[in-house]
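[Meeting: bench + compute handoff]

Bench side (C.D.) handed over the final construct sequence. Compute side (W.E.) agreed to return the predicted structure before the next meeting so the bench team could plan truncations. Sequence as handed over:
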Amino acid sequence: MLPPVAHARFNNLIEDFGLGDPVSLRREMVKYNSIISGSAALLVFHPGAFTPGDLDFYVPAANAANFKAVLKDRGFFDNCEDNKRPYYPSSNLLTTCRFWKEGLGRSVNLITIRGDNPLVVVVQFHSTLLMNVITGHGVVCLYPLLTLPGRGLIMVDTMKARKCLVKYGRRGFRFQTVFASHQCDYTGYCRNATRSIDDKDVLTVPFEYQPQSANTSIAGLTPFQWRLGPIRM
């Protein structure tokens, strides 16, 4: 994916959800260390595969009030009682608040997280297929060797997670608990491998062309390491 393609797909997504000017929104995402993840971020890598019913912003709790103001300035009103429950257990997820806009049949969700880095929640999603983010600088796929061919490693086995996996299965995606053809502890999608947001197995595409040595797509998200580990029940 080239930067102009990533840029155009981001702009289309922002337009579809009635979020106004994408340039100023990107600035505000950078300012408040907010990212977009979930199904909307997956759509950037699989355009046309499905129509997302909502768009999820993740923001540190310390910046939540400011980002709520950003959404309200763009014509959204909040209904925090209409809470969206996650499909995965995470001690780092604090609150979820839905925002609606008159005439728009889809919601924008503001999810607050513990700490400063929203990736702490992303790497706890129910499968690696959803471990993608949109930052104010570009798009990031944590498991491109699986995600781009439409595959995912199952990370959570609960009734809610199974329902979600079935939904994505109907959209043409495929899930497994393990992939046999890999080198344990080394291959990027091994459960036991220790990964870093700036390692060779992460795909990053900036919205604008940049020097080869730069990687602005993950600005504000480094340093960050994680390990998938066993399936969580």
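W.E. noted at the follow-up: The helical segments are 3-16, 22-31, 39-45, 64-73, 119-122, 144-147, 159-170. C.D. will use this when planning the next construct.
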